[in-house]
Design a protein that fits this description.
InterPro entries: SsuA/THI5. With 297 residues, this protein is α/β, with parallel strands linked by helices. It has 13 helices and eight strands. The protein has two domains: 174 residues, D-Maltodextrin-Binding Protein, domain 2; 98 residues, Periplasmic binding protein-like II (D-Maltodextrin-Binding Protein, domain 2). 44% of the residues lie in helices and 12% in strands.
């Protein structure tokens, strides 16, 4: 997709967001896919970056031990079952904010303990070792946990108020976007075409994901296509980012500031309209156009 847009790209992997931010600000990378919670924090701290596109959405599962729901009809499963329990989370990631905010709205904020781990692997291993009662996990740990007999109490994208919530977002230096908008627009056009590939070519998509995630094809397909209505979307989703900002303020993770200065759908609007103009009857592109009109008002 990138070559079709005349871009010579290289994928650089990072283990956590702070190193990625340092690489972006030092000019070692041009774009970063950052966690939405971290981006809100960075913007609140005054980093001169702009969210201009989307990446992952939803994708987290609240995983519990099977005995917690034994004998309880699935329609009665809720956070109430975790009163007095301990939930493992990976840092202040999207799944944590969703369930922390949900717990507060249900009056459970002081009834549930959240234990922060360095990464998803640590949280998953602690669940397996009975150090915690539940864990908020994403791929590949969500599907691995279910395959080993644990239960998905709920998926984060189905939590009230956070349906299809934002997760990783595409961000770059504000100055870079202003200096070279054509290149970043081309980057977004490639992401839009890649989204169409993801929606229309599931088998080929899973083969590509398997290059980076060591999970069997059947389980990976389930995690990618069955648990959530979608796990990726190139839209910057200004509404979703604003909702996440509100949740972070409400739960005390950040102080109030004007987040709108760090969010932009301008280049995405141009990129999407250019792609739609080439094939206006394509159902995937029409969906993205409707989504854009709804989420980037």
């Amino acid at each position: 997709m990138f070559k079709d847009e005349g871009l010579n790209t290289e994928l650089v992997m990072f283990g956590e967001n702070n190193s990625e931010l340092a690489a972006l600000e030092s000019g070692k990378i041009d774009v970063g896919a950052f966690g939405s919670s971290e981006l809100v924090t960075y913007l609140g701290d005054g980093h001169e970056i702009t969210v201009f596109g989307g990446a992952m959405i939803a994708g987290h599962g609240l995983i519990v031990k099977p005995e917690l729901v034994e004998g309880i009809p699935e329609e009665n499963w809720s956070l109430d079952l975790l009163k007095g329990k301990n939930i493992g989370v990976e840092g202040v990631d999207s799944g944590y904010i969703v369930y922390r905010s949900a717990a507060k709205k249900m009056g459970l904020e002081n009834s549930i303990d959240f234990s922060i781990f360095a990464d998803g692997a640590d949280a998953y291993n602690s669940l397996k070792n009975d150090d915690i009662d539940a864990a908020i996990l994403y791929a590949p740990y969500r599907i691995l946990a279910e395959d080993e007999g644990y239960v998905i109490l709920s998926n984060s994208g189905t939590v009230s108020g956070f349906e299809d919530h934002v997760c990783c977002r595409q961000a770059s230096l504000t100055s870079s976007l202003e200096k070279d908008p054509d290149t970043y627009e081309a980057f977004l056009r490639a992401l839009i075409r890649a989204y169409r590939f993801y929606k229309t070519e599931p088998d080929k998509t899973i083969k590509d994901i398997q290059k980076y995630v060591d999970v069997d094809e059947g389980s990976l397909k389930k995690d990618t296509y069955d648990y959530d209505s979608q796990i990726a979307n190139p839209d910057p989703d200004i509404t979703g980012m604003t909702n996440f900002y509100d949740a972070l303020v409400d739960t005390g993770f950040v102080n109030e500031f004007d987040i709108s200065q760090g969010l932009s759908a301008e280049l995405y609007d141009k990129a999407l309209n250019a792609v739609v103009a080439e094939d206006p009857d394509d159902e995937v592109y029409k969906y993205l156009l409707d989504y854009h009109k709804e989420r980037d008002k």
